[in-house]
Amino acid sequence: MNSVLATNDGGCLLGGSKYDYENTNELERDIYILKLNNQGLLTSTEENNSNLMHEAIVFPNPGTTKFNIRVAAQYPESTVELYNINGELILKNEIIGKSAEIETSFLKTGTYIYKIYNKSGLFETGKWIKN
After folding, report:
1. Do 70 and 38 lie in a common domain?
2. How many domains are contained in the chain?
3. CA 44 to CA 26: how far, in whole Å?
4. Which of 87, 118, 121, 131 fits 78 for a cystine, CB–CB 3.0-4.6 Å?
5. Residue 62 preceded by cis peptide, ω within 30
6. Are strands 56-59 and 89-95 parallel, antiparallel or unpaired?
7. pTM of the model
8. Does residue 126 contact residue 113 with C-beta atoms inside 8 Å?
């Protein structure tokens, strides 16, 4: 992410680029612009969002007693951390293989931030809502 711009509706625009150092030539980059609403949720004016690529998927979202994670094949042996809205670490679990089920029945209703990473670094972050 290279830039953040506040919008009049209380949301923001996020801009950045992605570059695959191993498999592309020097001038090839993927550029993205994302729009978040005033609740921090991703919005778009496009009808088809299939071009947004994720390295991991967290579902169901919102959820109740658990959520599942599926990570891309190139990220085995990852870790998920879940933070409350105050930035306090609530749980930390290892993801062995390409998927994991995370128990959340002990959590209060609310919004949580997840970070998924492996030894190479962070590759996915987002919000998870518990009903």
Report:
1. no
2. 2
3. 30
4. 118
5. yes
6. unpaired
7. 0.60
8. yes
- For residue 25, the number of C-alpha atoms closer than 13 Å in the C-beta half-sphere is 1
Cβ(113)–Cβ(102) below 8 Å: no
Cα angle 39, 3, 40; round to 5: 10
What token pair was written down for 96?
A: 């062995």
Q: Going edge to edge, which strands form the sheet with 12-18? A: 3-6, 12-18, 30-36, 42-43
Buried b (16+ CB within 10 A) or exposed e, 75-91: beebebbbbeeeeeebe
Rounded to an integer, what distance in angstroms lies between the CA atom of residue 98 and that of residue 88? 26
Distance of CA 21 to the CA centre of its chain: 22
Residue with the bigger pLDDT between 68 and 44: it is 68
Element (H, E) at 110: strand 110-118
**Are residues 68 and 18 both part of a single domain?**
no
Q: Which residues make Cβ contacts (< 8 Å) with residue 78, sequence separation at least 6? A: 56, 71, 94, 95, 116, 117, 118, 123
Find which of 23-32, 40-49, 59-68 is predicted with most confidence, using mean pLDDT.
59-68
Give the range of the structural domain holding residue 118, as residue numbers without chain letter. 54-131
